[in-house]
Amino acid sequence: MTSDPAPGLPVPKLVALVVDDEPQMLYVVTFALETQGFECLTAPDAETAWEMASTRDLDLVVLDVMLPGGSGVDLCRRLRGTGSQVPIILLTAMRDEPDRIAGLEAGADDYVTKPFSPRELALRARAVTRRSGSGPDAITNGPLRVSTATGRVSWSGRNIPLPDTEARLLATMARRCDAVVTWQELLNEVWGTSDDSGGREMVRTTVYRLRRHLEAHDVPADVVVAVRGRGYRMPPLDRD
What we know:
12 strands; about 40% helix
C-alpha cells in the first residue's frame, strides 16, 4: 500500500500521458483514468508526446498505434531506447494484430483493442502500474518509487536494481520520509532483529553499499543522510 503522507499534505496522484489525435478518444481515455485517480496529460501526436515524456516524470503512457508524425509502436520503441520503464498501454484496432505484436515486441506492457470499455482500460492501467511498482502498493518520494509488493526500485521511471537488503532499507527510509530513523529501528524493520550486537556497523555498511549502488545509476547518494549520533534521514525529494 502507499505510504501515508505527512499530515496536511495531499496524496500524490499517478501521472498518465494519453496520446491520440482524436479529441473524443482523448476525452474517453482521460475520463476513464481519472476515475481511478490518475492525473492526465494529453498529446495529439508522437513528437509532442516524446517531448512531454522527456521532461515529465510519468507513471503511465497510453498511446494509439496510429499517430501523426510517427506510429505509437515507434514511440514505444523510442521510449524504451532511453531506458525508461514507464508502463505503456497501446490502443489498437481489432484487425491490427501485426501492430499489437510489434507493440509488445517494442516494449509495450499491454494493449487494448478498439472499441473498448473505459472501465476495462482503467483497470488495466491500474494493473500495469501495480506490476511496475507505480501503483497503490508503492512508496513514493519525488522521483523515487519503491514497490512494497515486489521490492522493485525506480528513479524517474528508470529501474534501479538493488540487493534485497538495500532495497528494504531504502523502502524503510522512504516510508519514514523526513523523520530520523535510528539504527536500532532500522535493525528491527530491515533485518527483523532487536539484537544490537554489531548492529550499528551492519547498518552503516549497508547504507554505504546502498549509496554506491545509487550513485552507479546516477541517483544522488544524499537521498539517505546520516544524522550524527541518532541515525539516518531521507529528505523530501522534488518530483522533477
